[in-house]
Amino acid sequence: MIEFQTLALVDTLQAAYIRSLNSKDMKGWLACFAPGNGQYECRTSESDEQDLHLPLMLDDCYARLQDRVLFITEVWSGTYTDYATRHFVQRISAQRGADGLYQVTTNFMVAYTTARRQTEILVAGRYEDDIAVDKTAATFVRKRAILDTITTPRYLVYPI
Amino acid sequence: MQTETPSLSAPWPVKPNELPKEIFHREDIFQLELERIFRGPVWHMVGHVAELPKPGDFKTTIVGDVRLLMMHGKDGRVRVFHNSCPHRGTQLETAARGCRGEIECPYHRWVFNMEGALVSASGRDRFPATFRNEDYGLRQLKTEQRHGLIFSTFSDLAPPLDEFLGPAGDVLRQALGGDERVTLLGYQKVVYHGNWKECSDNEGYHAPLLHRAFRLLKWQGGKGTQAVSPYGHKTISAELAEAPKGKFLNDPSLIELRDPSRVPRSFVAQLFPLNLFVRHLDVINMRVAFPLSPHATEVHYAYFSRQEDDSEMCAHRRRQAANLLGPSGFISLEDGAVFDRLHEGSYTPGTVAFQKGVTDDGGIESVQLQNDEASNLFKWQVYQSMMGFTHD
Asked: What is the rounded CA–CA span in Å between residue A124 and residue A113?
């Protein structure tokens, strides 16, 4: 049984994560990851089902997370047509692993609103996260967004 | 009976570098493109044998608006069928890829073997006496392979494949790494909200201007060549300057060129009407696309490693593939963004006009440099001719 306090820290982290993406605060997004060793991956469930494991985004070291922020905020700036996201999440399982990290699975659905103020579903899927929790805060050591959506309905500027 | 060419609001422009914007969004023109181009006398690159390497492996795809089922037969041949039962037209396979010993239609349990022949049909004793299994095999497209790449055509009037590909055939070979010995790494799939012609009209001019990463990382050497073919293909062989170490990226290992057999060169083969093959850094990428409507194009990026790669090299290629190209690719996201904007911009009157590499009278310079755009105009001449658009 995981203590309520631990789950509260996990949920606070997930809320900070989706708040940063929904507000396009990429520094806030980066701050959700364990400094120095956080990792992020976004891939489709089709990739897993076919045993291919080719991600859509792969930040397999902290420097790559930093570079993703760099591209979104500087390199791509002014080229893409912006859109706003709303992430809806539902934690469905959590357990403590042998490595001391909490393995948390969370369903998500992401809606996006275009510059014309039309809203559609962007992707649905699940997060499979490895989370470090101390007495006061939690951080993602590994965050994996696994999309049920095989064909994304637009190009993806922001992580999921 | 062939459909008549729709009238444009003004005759097709006389200057070869000009195009009417209305061709990018009109439904009637789109329907004619499906008929005259996609189901016309052209070859389509529908996949690579590495996607279905053993007997029984299959992949579903679309060309134009026609649903197809590719299957690796017991005899080693990859065939391309209509993904439709010849009995009542039921879609036969719904999965993107898989492996089956036979194909069974769920509606009336007709069974086909891996070579597409009808093996059994339930209730056969009540069929007409004239019914013969050989008349009800899966309908098959004319299909050939080059370097493991699978090409199909709907038309008996398509030229021989090697003639159709021309010099692009060798660029495809080089981009694959010399031969067909590649392994599938995986896919990325996305819908771009542009007309298929907008999604296949990228040129060398935009590369260092739209893609700021090329400039920041000093990837674009600018010394390269373009070649065109009479069937509308374009190839680019581009030199890449070495990326400066530690100057911009926190993790410059992402853009390392590790394949020892290659000089810093990228290859692009843009095949008419809607195929693309790219070798960029260590990424080996095939793009199969299909127009969903005049306003949307679905693109499937397939990535490969070389069979001789060790696990480290495979991981490197996977890492580059995941981050450089595709719907979130560091150097391709901007393309998707521009496809959308080209399409929105097409809802204005008049014409667009290519300029870089164009002669004073609107023609095409005989030599097209790496960052010129006029090489696309050869493709547009093919398009205009196939569609039957005239200047009067």
From this structure: 15
